[in-house]
Specification:
single chain, two-stranded antiparallel sheet, 46% helix
Length: 308
């Protein structure tokens, strides 16, 4: 299959490629005479949804935001169609510099850099959203992944009640120009690269959506506590230090009101419920491993005790 992809690349893009390596079932590393690139082949979203995602990403790149460059084809298109068993959509990205940081490096310095890029992304996107170029990027509540009551079992009554209350409170928040807009939606360790010169690049915008900016801030904090804390000291101190760094970096590029900051605990709870809901959507409950049962029980305890 990689040979067919290589043929497609050399026919479709103004770059000479000589090797293709499979990274995941939808991502391929492509070597060329102009360096490395990554090709995404997926039907994760419709053509129009993917087009608006990569058009926004391209806009962010032109504004100096830390995102990968989307490469146009010979037809001057950001998305091309490719047939491998079935027709899918292909997007080519320039390889970004840097690495996924090890857990021990996911610290105040990294969070300050992330805050800067997030603040810049939200600031430059405000006018873009008003230009009606993102009509097919959905609002968060239109996603099935936020339909908690559909997937969390009815017998988990207390969690369903908490989920209903959290979603209701978020929906009741005013969607002001300074608080609501286009967000990445999944900024955690695996979707961020940092190089030796402290250049940070945000990757994988497939989960972008219209949402409250506070949610974009909550996701990396939540994810760091879940996956990146490497021990030593107090985890509450770690949480406070990375949150402070993220906010300080954000304020260097964009205004951040006390109103938004006060909403962070609510969005941390929304993120926790989101993760719990994904388990019910995608795990096979007929064949749960011991580790999956353990994780489910830990989430239930945390949610039922309102410990975000």
């Amino acid at each position: 299959m990689n040979e067919r992809i290589l043929l497609f690349l050399n026919k479709t893009y103004p770059i000479h490629f000589y090797a293709v390596e499979t990274i995941t079932n939808e991502m391929y590393r492509c070597q060329s005479n102009k360096g490395n690139f990554f090709l995404r082949i997926t039907n994760y979203k419709t053509f129009q949804e993917q087009l608006e995602e990569v058009t926004w990403t391209h806009f962010l790149f032109t504004q100096g935001v830390g995102v990968p460059e989307v490469i146009s084809s010979n037809n001057d298109l950001l998305i091309e169609k490719i047939t491998i068993d079935e027709e899918k959509l292909a997007v080519l990205f320039q390889s970004a510099s840097g690495i996924h940081l090890p857990r021990s490096k996911w610290d105040q310095t990294a969070f300050r850099l992330l805050g800067q890029q997030m603040g810049k992304m939200h600031r430059v996107s405000k006018g873009y959203l008003m230009s009606e170029k993102a009509v097919h990027i959905n609002h968060w509540y239109e996603s099935d992944e936020y339909d908690f009551l559909k997937y969390i079992p009815a017998e988990e009554k207390s969690i369903q009640e908490i989920a209903h209350d959290v979603v209701k409170r978020v929906k009741e928040l005013p969607q002001g120009h300074s608080t609501y807009g286009l967000i990445h939606g999944d900024l955690w360790l695996e979707n961020i690269l940092i190089d030796n010169e402290s250049k940070l690049t945000m990757i994988d915008f497939q989960d972008c959506e219209k949402h409250f900016y506070a949610y974009d801030l909550a996701v990396p904090i939540y994810s760091a506590l879940e996956f990146s804390y490497s021990g030593g000291g107090n985890i509450r101190d770690y949480e406070q230090s990375i949150t402070k760094a993220l906010i300080e970096g954000y304020k260097e590029e964009n205004d951040l009101s006390s109103e938004v900051l006060m909403q962070l605990p609510l969005f941390l709870k929304l993120k926790e419920l989101f993760e719990y809901n994904l388990m019910h959507m995608y795990w096979n409950f007929e064949e749960l491993s011991e580790e999956q049962v353990r994780i489910l029980n830990l989430y239930r305890i945390r949610i039922e005790n309102m410990h975000a």
